């Protein structure tokens, strides 16, 4: 089973044309990029200017939401306040015609899967935010969808529940190998850990939609947003063939960036990881071919490492060890020297053909 | 009507004296006409009516409404306020009549015809004056009715007959007169013997006591009687 | 979040407006006369008739009015405001005129009545006429109350139900209606109360025959012609009864509901 | 989420119950007699009096009833259900009996009336009495409708306002009331309509003096003694008027509101 | 200014006694641990069984919410649907008595800070989830709080907005150095990057409340939850003096764990980082003194590395390179050999005195 989506909706900034095979697919993009809107269109809850949805060969155009077998767990959990937790989860099975008993048994099963069995007899009003999100996930899973649309399902979950839920999503898709899961998320970890199948894709909504296998999209970011998501530095440049590229820095001046070998010519994106950036008190001598004077804009502690924001010659960030921090006195506004090894700088064409 | 004598101290501003008269709703038309005459005779006097069912008016008087004259449609309601009024006088009478739809399609010719169970006949409920009268009349005439409805107001009997909802009904002659061509009256034997009397009286605590007596005198006098008879009322 | 305490000041005013006159009324009731009055055949007939007809009318209002309220609140169809205005009309129509309207429609010579009679169905002077009159005057109460409640509802709840596979009917009965429960309840209570107290339209359209069309308000009105104290006592029965019924409905429904 | 289409079926039933009798009524109106009737002094007096008193009563209901509705919906105080039941009483009390209750309380011989008269304040048979009677009967409509709406409200909105520094008064006027807007509106409309149509309690407690206490329903009642067709025509004026006012209020308020 | 909170609320599992100086403080804990409940108690919105709140020397007990100068941004944004975006943000200033103009100017300022200026004239109903969260944050900031309580304010934000908001929170606290910010969150990155001041603390709610300077709490986790949060492995044991400790494994048998040198005796926690754990196909010879047979429970890709869950002899995880994955065939259920260098294993006393 696969899900084909073509949707244009100017007011919501949507213009996509995707084919998603069975498996797990991530949907990312800035706030307001249209992730929730796209999911609503697929579920039949909102009318795009123009849309065509095909699920497993069956056109969903004109099919009312409840006959699509497309279940949407929305960004706000939307549990039914007048039903208990178990009855909330049993709502889908009951709607599908299961008997009261069978539905409750299914509900209990899914509540156990999300670790909420102990709360089966509560009212949704008495749940914490994360508990409600887990119940909502159980409710969506219990409704036996052909396509499962999840709008930030893991955002409210704690560190213990998050890997558990990722595993659940993984298990469900492997158990029912015709299920299409679409997961709107802001967390690259969700993308990397949930969408780990060969056919799984990542779509980043934005001015230009980026779509393809997860690794391909993250490795060749075409927007600052995607670069941020992948955690790499991204500079727009023009490449001559061979190695190296010319970039415009913030002052408008041309700066030559030394890169690894590549066969790109013309407009391109130059990327390098933050941990490939070294910082120095004085101009460094020696092997790195990219050496620039820079200015510190921000210093952030970051999971045992320190991330330093720089504003010149490009907006970029460096990741250094706390030890290095004591060597180079880094405070916002400080002048430093920046070096990047050419071998760690990669070049991608700016205008790709099809990426998938 | 400004600037004339300030009368008997009833609370008028600028020299106008207001006479408060409570009268049964069925007297509305006749009394409006009488008021016009009375005001013409008494410069600076304005008659203000409370028209309602006689029992409503009795309730209001018991509740302490500022009333100078009470004209009731039956003696029972006048009796209810006997402590608050002085010397009630009968000023008009009324008798029942059978009414049918215009053209009398069911060819009803008298009380006996009303006993036909296939006819829809409406009368007043026994608790109200016209219903009490109807009961007396049918008993006297030895007729037993099986009414489709026993209305609590004469007007509702009229409405049912004039709208064709009922084939016939028993109402006061004055009501039939008032309804004009909407209904047709049928001569009713024995009706003259069951007379309903309308008493009028001044209130003990009337603010405009003299004027109130003048009004009663006017109603019971020739001018008032003429107006009443034009509307179908009988003489006391 | 507790409401501010000084709200009690105007609220006490509201309570006084209602409660003080009731106290005044109570002081004037002749308790001794109550028992024989209550056990009289006429009173019992009227009481039973009133209860039966008011319950049926309320059910009819719920059945017909709920869909209309939902359509008024949710739809975006032309003529919506015209229809809402029309539905409000019985609210402001003097009941007697409402009765006349019913008479000119369902009466023997009425627009529809003529055909009904020809078909062998007579409505006038029957208990059906009472129910019709009560439904006519009570319907707007249910529709308006419920429409307000539906407007306040978050439509995303119904959307969630839809993607879970719930058909429109299931959505309506399992999500929308339970969520507007309080609004539906108060609308039904208002409709029931209005039906129970209905007088003018019933009198005009259905007439007043004991056990058939003479409901408690009509009986009270008649009783008043003879004995006002008895009428008041009878009214109190009506009041106590209605209050008990309504109170029971509320107690049952608000227990499970949200705080 | 569109409501299911088949809801139109029962909704059409509801519309028929209300609209067909109105059509029936229209067919029986004598348009020719309307103009002189409308321009008669008595009619105009009654019309103006009705509008004035109904507006004042509605305002009173809003002022006193809104706090009570909020307290009934939100508080958890003892005697809450008793009070709610009491507030419902005027709903089911036959209006005439309501008038009697007011008379025995505020009348010249009444519980409070005696003291008021001693203090130089007379209420019975004045325009104030009309307003009091209308407020008495209309109050429950506002309270019940609004209570339903407040119950449906998410209390976290008020909590958010509180931590942002909003005083209870600001919370009430800027958050609670705007959010229950539709409920308050329909409650006010019901109350206004009930006040405008009030007849029995007014007649008993306030009497029927032209320009002072004879409101339009009372004028219609009198007119019917004389000329039933004229009474119907006059009723239609009342209806058209009320419908226009209510329609205008709704149109204005639902434009800005949520879909 | 500092915030002292003592609160006991059995039904919500709360029992805390905290003193939070001006600065930024993180509040973590599993779903349902009571984070939101604690914030509600501080804001005066919910009654704990027993509570005492003192803010800047002023007791808040019995003070109604609107007079506390404690602003709470709750987990659901709770924007007022009947007000436009600008009026939502101006609500706080208006409540504080600012004129209409001044309040709108303040609103515009804060909308700019959160990057939502372009949305000032919209209705909240027309915002995306992340946009609503940003407006709610602006609304909270605009209300000039003495204590600012934020319940997962960053959960709905995208990768571009998140660092911006962290910077905003940092800036606000540095600008108004008497402001106490309490931030409930599930993301250790929020904890590390926002709460980076010397006096900033982390509180982890749970069976036993962990509280202290951020680094101290993360470095010496006393619960599996905190260990997960910090990303380290945690084993309960008893230590003799010198090096080493005795732990009970899942079968109940005693296992000796070799550790670095320490001076702890009695009940203790033993911790080691996932990347200190090596996996082997066959029993390894050589230096590592901790060598155990283990069973794989889960394999997850994790930001360019692979994380392997193990169930024996303890529940732990190992972080290895993708290259290593091809050497050792790891699938759930597989038997492997686990080794940990003693020098990388640390020991903490289980019952600490004051941790700060
Ligand atoms: N309104 C309520 N009524 C009763 N119990 C509640 C209510 N809200 C929360 N609880 C319960 O109280 C406990 C603490 O909930 P709380 O919302 O404070 O947790 P939390 O730490 O914020 O969780 P999360 O990370 O999921 O938001 C939970 O067990 C929850 O089920
Ligand atoms: N109900 C609505 N009416 C009008 N516009 C809306 C509505 N909901 C969203 N929008 C607008 O449409 C655009 C897309 O919103 P959408 O909710 O799809 O974004 P998103 O990608 O889900 O964002 P987020 O990550 O913040 O949840 C935004 O600019 C938003 O302001
Ligand atoms: O005017 Mo009357 O007293 O109802 O016949
Ligand atoms: Mg979204
Ligand atoms: Mg929470």
Mind sketching the topology for me?
The complex is a heteropentamer, with 2 copies of chain A (356 residues), 1 copy of chain B (236 residues) and 2 copies of chain C (259 residues).
Chain A: E1 2-9, E2 14-21, E3 23-28, H1 35-43, E4 50-55, E5 58-59, E6 70-73, H2 85-95, H3 100-113, H4 129-142, E7 147-151, H5 161-175, E8 180-184, H6 188-194, E9 201-204, E10 210-213, H7 214-219, H8 224-230, E11 233-239, E12 242-248, E13 254-262, E14 266-272, E15 277-280, E16 290-302, E17 305-310, E18 316-320, H9 322-327, E19 335-340, E20 346-349
Parallel strand pairs in A: 3-8, 3-9, 6-7, 7-8
Antiparallel strand pairs in A: 1-2, 1-4, 4-5, 9-10, 11-12, 11-14, 12-13, 14-20, 15-19, 16-17, 16-19, 17-18
Helix pairs in contact in A: 2-3, 2-4, 3-4
Chain B: E1 17-24, H1 28-41, E2 45-52, H2 54-62, E3 69-71, H3 75-80, E4 85-94, E5 96-100, E6 121-124, H4 129-141, E7 149-151, H5 154-162, E8 168-172, H6 173-179, E9 184-186, E10 196-203, H7 209-220, H8 222-230
Parallel strand pairs in B: 1-2, 1-3, 6-7, 6-8
Antiparallel strand pairs in B: 3-10, 4-10, 5-8, 5-9
Chain C: H1 8-27, H2 34-38, H3 41-74, H4 80-92, H5 95-106, H6 113-118, H7 127-151, H8 155-163, H9 168-179, H10 181-197, H11 200-206, H12 216-226, H13 228-256
Word description of this protein:
The complex is a heteropentamer, with two copies of chain A (356 residues), one copy of chain B (236 residues) and two copies of chain C (259 residues). By secondary structure, chain A is an alpha+beta fold. Helices cover 25% and strands 34% of the residues of chain A. Chain A folds into two domains: 2-233, Rossmann fold (3-Layer(aba) Sandwich); 234-349, RNA polymerase II/Efflux pump adaptor protein, barrel-sandwich hybrid domain (OB fold (Dihydrolipoamide Acetyltransferase, E2P), Beta Barrel). Chain A has nine helices and 20 strands. In chain A, the strands form four sheets. In chain A, strands 6-7-8-3-9-10 form a six-stranded mixed sheet, sandwiched between helices. In chain A, strands 13-12-11-14-20 form a five-stranded antiparallel sheet. A five-stranded antiparallel sheet of chain A has the order 15-19-16-17-18. The radius of gyration of chain A is 24 Å and the shape is elongated. With 236 residues, chain B is an alpha/beta fold. Helix content of chain B is 33%, strand content 24%. Chain B is built from eight helices and ten strands. In chain B, strand 1 (17-24), helix 1 and strand 2 (45-52) form a beta-alpha-beta unit. In chain B, helix 1 packs antiparallel against helix 8. Chain B is elongated and about 60 Å long. In chain B, 56% of the residues are buried. Chain C is an all-alpha fold. Chain C has one domain (39-254): MetI-like fold (Orthogonal Bundle). Chain C is 77% helix and 0% strand. Chain C has 13 helices and no strands. Chain C has helices spanning 8-27, 34-38, 41-74, 80-92, 95-106, 113-118, 127-151, 155-163, 168-179, 181-197, 200-206, 216-226, 228-256. Chain C starts with 7 loop residues before the first helix and ends with a helix. Chains in contact: A-C, A-E, B-C, B-D, C-D, D-E. The structure holds adenosine-5'-triphosphate (2 copies), molybdate ion and magnesium ion (2 copies). One magnesium ion (MG) binds at residues 35-36, 75, 151 of chain E.
């Amino acid at each position: 089973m696969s899900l084909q989506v073509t949707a244009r909706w100017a007011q919501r900034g949507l213009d996509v044309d995707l084919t998603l095979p069975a498996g797990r697919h991530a949907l990312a993009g800035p706030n307001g990029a249209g992730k929730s809107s796209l999911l609503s269109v697929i579920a039949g809850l909102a009318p795009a200017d123009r849309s065509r949805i095909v699920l497993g060969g069956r056109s969903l155009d004109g099919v009312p939401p409840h006959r699509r077998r497309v279940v949407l767990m929305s960004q706000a959990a939307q549990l039914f306040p007048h039903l208990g937790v178990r009855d909330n989860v049993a709502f889908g099975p009951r709607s599908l015609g299961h008997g009261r008993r069978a539905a409750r048994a299914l509900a209990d099963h899914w509540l156990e899967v999300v670790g909420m069995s102990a709360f089966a007899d509560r009212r949704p009003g008495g749940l914490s935010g994360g508990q409600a999100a887990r119940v909502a996930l159980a409710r969506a899973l219990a409704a036996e969808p052909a396509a499962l649309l999840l709008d930030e399902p893991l955002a409210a979950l704690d560190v213990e529940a998050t890997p558990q839920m990722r595993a659940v999503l993984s298990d469900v898709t492997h158990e029912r190998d015709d299920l299409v899961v679409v997961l709107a998320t802001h967390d690259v970890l969700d993308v990397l850990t949930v969408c780990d199948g060969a056919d799984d894709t990542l779509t980043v909504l934005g001015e230009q939609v980026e779509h393809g296998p997860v690794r391909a999209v993250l490795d060749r970011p075409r927007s600052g947003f995607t670069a941020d998501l992948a955690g790499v530095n991204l500079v727009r440049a023009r490449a001559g063939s061979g190695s190296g590229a010319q970039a415009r820095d913030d002052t408008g001046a041309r700066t030559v960036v030394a890169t690894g070998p590549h066969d790109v010519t013309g407009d391109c994106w130059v990327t390098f990881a933050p941990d490939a950036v070294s910082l120095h008190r004085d101009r460094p001598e020696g092997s790195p071919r990219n050496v620039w004077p820079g200015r510190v804009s921000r210093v952030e502690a970051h999971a045992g490492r320190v991330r330093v924001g720089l504003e010149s010659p490009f907006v970029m960030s460096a990741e250094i060890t706390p030890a290095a921090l004591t060597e180079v006195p880094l405070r916002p506004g400080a002048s430093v020297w920046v070096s990047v090894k050419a071998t760690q700088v990669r070049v991608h064409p700016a205008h790709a053909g099809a990426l998938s | 009507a400004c600037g004339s004598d300030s009368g008997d101290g009833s609370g008028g501003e600028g020299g106008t004296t207001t006479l408060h008269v409570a009268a049964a709703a069925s007297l509305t038309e006749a009394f409006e006409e009488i008021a016009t005459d009375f005001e013409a005779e008494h410069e600076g006097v304005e008659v203000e009516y409370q028209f309602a069912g006689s029992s409503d008016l009795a309730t209001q008087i018991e509740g302490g409404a500022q009333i100078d004259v009470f004209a009731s449609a039956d003696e029972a309601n006048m009796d209810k306020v006997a402590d608050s009024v002085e010397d009630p006088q009968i000023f008009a009478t009324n008798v029942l009549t059978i009414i049918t739809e215009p053209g009398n399609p069911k060819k009803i010719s008298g009380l006996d015809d009303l006993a036909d169970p296939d006819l829809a006949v409406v009368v007043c409920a026994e608790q109200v004056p016209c219903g009490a009268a109807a009961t007396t009349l049918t008993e006297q005439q030895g007729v037993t009715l099986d009414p489709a409805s026993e209305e609590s107001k004469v007007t509702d009997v009229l409405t049912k007959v004039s709208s064709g909802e009922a084939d016939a009904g028993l109402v006061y002659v004055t009501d039939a007169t008032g309804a004009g061509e909407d209904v047709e009256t049928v001569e009713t034997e024995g009706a003259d013997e069951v007379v309903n009397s309308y008493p009028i009286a001044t209130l003990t605590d009337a603010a405009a006591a003299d004027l109130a007596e003048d009004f009663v005198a006017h109603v019971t006098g020739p001018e008032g009687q003429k107006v009443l008879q034009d509307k179908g009322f009988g003489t006391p | 979040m507790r409401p501010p305490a000084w709200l009690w000041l105007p609220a006490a005013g509201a309570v006084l407006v209602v409660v003080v006159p009731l106290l005044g009324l109570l002081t004037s009731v002749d308790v001794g006369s109550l028992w024989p009055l209550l056990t009289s055949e006429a009173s019992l007939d009227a009481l039973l008739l009133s209860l039966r007809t008011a319950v049926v009318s309320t059910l009819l209002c719920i059945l017909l009015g709920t869909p209309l309220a939902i359509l008024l609140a949710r739809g975006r169809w032309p003529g919506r405001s015209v229809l809402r205005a029309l539905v409000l009309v019985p609210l402001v129509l003097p009941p007697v005129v409402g009765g006349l309207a019913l008479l000119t429609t369902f009466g023997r010579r009425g627009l529809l009545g003529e055909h009904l009679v020809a078909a062998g169905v007579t409505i006038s002077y029957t208990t059906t006429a009472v129910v019709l009159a009560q439904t006519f005057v009570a319907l707007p109460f249910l529709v308006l109350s419920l429409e307000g409640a539906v407007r306040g509802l978050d439509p995303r709840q119904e959307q969630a139900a839809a993607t879970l596979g719930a058909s429109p009917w299931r959505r309506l009965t399992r999500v929308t209606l339970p969520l507007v429960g309080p609004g539906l309840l108060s609308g039904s209570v208002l409709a029931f109360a209005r039906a129970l107290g209905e007088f003018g339209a019933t009198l005009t359209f259905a007439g007043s025959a004991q056990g058939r069309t003479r409901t408690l308000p009509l009986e009270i009105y008649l009783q008043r012609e003879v004995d006002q104290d008895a009428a008041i006592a009878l009214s109190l029965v009506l009041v106590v009864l209605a209050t008990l019924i309504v109170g029971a409905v509320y107690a049952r429904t608000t227990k499970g509901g949200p705080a």
